[in-house]
Request: fold
Amino acid sequence: MFDILTEKLQRTFKTLKGEAKLTENNVDFAMREIRLALLEADVNFKVVKDFIDRVRAKCLGTEVMTALSPAQQVISFVRDELIATLGDAEARLIFSKNPPSVFLVVGLQGSGKTTSVGKIARWMMKNGHRPLLLSVDVYRPAAREQLSVIAHDVDAKIFPGEGMDQPLALAKAALREASLSGYDVLLIDTAGRLHIDDELMQELSTLKQQLKPSEILFVADAMTGQDAVKSAHEFHERLGISGVILTKLDGDARGGAALSIRAVTGQPIKFVGVGEKPDALELFYPDRMVSRLLGMGDVLSLIEKAQETFDLKQAQKLEEKLRKDEFSLEDFRDQLRQMRKLGPLDKILGMLPQIGAMKDLQKANIDEKQLIHTEAIINSMTPRERRNHQIINGQRRKRIARGSGTTVNQVNQLLKQYAQMRKMMKSMAGSLAGGRMPRHLERFLPRQ
Reply:
């Protein structure tokens, strides 16, 4: 995400590296380039103007640090102001003191509203809530059936409302059911339109007045740029939204909607959708998003994702095997499976800082099929072969290649990579157990 904007900002910062100090001339140059980058990224022009004015004032003001280079100073100021534009801290959902809390999910048709309801339900259940889902979209064909399918996929309960075709009556009946059955949240998928109209707004206003929701969440398609920002502004003016869910952010190379919507509406971005799967919804952290935007990576999110994915007991067993030099091809396969659970490799790499070799790796064309081939090769081995790779001779390699639909060369390559990885891990495990840094890493330590 934001690839185009990230590249242009980094190019601007790079031109300042040769400067000895910040002057009015090089500040003017940097601000002009940053302004163009933001406008080309489809950021709202008023947001861009205010942003540039604030950064310029800092660059030419008394806050300039003599200990930093001009490039570092500008990056620091840009980072601070981008975070301020997106919101200083993450905004959590607001729940009612007297459950069930009512959440109205609103937005235009095609923005990903119904899918987002399913993702929010899954997130709530992971965090100890019991949501009841409801669709009051009685206009779009099969809209309620679509939510029913999504609810089933995330193992959430849905209020069917069979035979009912009035949105307000449906909502009141569902609220009654939620109260009686111990659900602490009623999550309502409202009707959308291809454009904003008075009939839609009147219906939503009635639901708001009667249900008194804890949150009114506007779903915006990040791919539509300023159209999403304009729609969010109109919904807020006429309805009073409390937060925004940005969908399809993984496909937004420009970033205009994300950088504009908070400033234009005054309401925080609470979630971002980064894929189609039910778990592809993330809490929005402004500081982490800005770090990724500036090419600094998002290591915190990567660590959290790894903590959710990796099995602690399995990791402890693996550590024990490494110490005893018992890391087998079965263990290698299990680690690959764990890695694939984190998500596509390009997304994982996108969370790493874009520096040195990491930047080159991120630009490389990563073939996800290679991981599938690797697993297929290991699966084609016998349990004995997986435990002891040294018995895999020429005949066995031919059989494994036939069974996995690969070539003998691919089998050879995998075994070579495995042997190298095992040797490296054995070296690291032995050195760390002895209380010292492995020799091949010692050269990276600072000299005394």
The chain has three domains: 3-86, 101-290, 303-442. Residues 101-290 form a domain with the Rossmann fold fold (CATH 3.40.50.300).
